[in-house]
Amino acid sequence: MNFQLINVALHSDELKKFDPAERGLSEYQYTGIAIEDGGKYYYWAKGVGLEIADWEYANIKLNPKLYYFSTALKLHLRINRALEAQRARRD
Predict the structure, then answer these.
(1) How many other C-beta atoms lie within 10 A of the C-beta of residue 56?
(2) Residue 18 DSSP SS3
(3) What is the radius of gyration, based on Cα positions, of the chain?
């Protein structure tokens, strides 16, 4: 089993769109974990685990910045959808 901590953050161009005093920025800066285990690949962040493709595993390790069309943004959105689904089940 191999794993690597991934520091996810907004790309500098996207970061400029936020007011420095804005509190919602932490939603876009967090640590995830990229995991390879026996030829399968996983990504874990914000308490959600996803099975991912090998190319997604490689891309998130190479570029963990959130911006349009990045693998990091794609995984970020999948995690947010999973969190929303969990909240909906609880309500």
Answers:
(1) 19
(2) coil
(3) 14
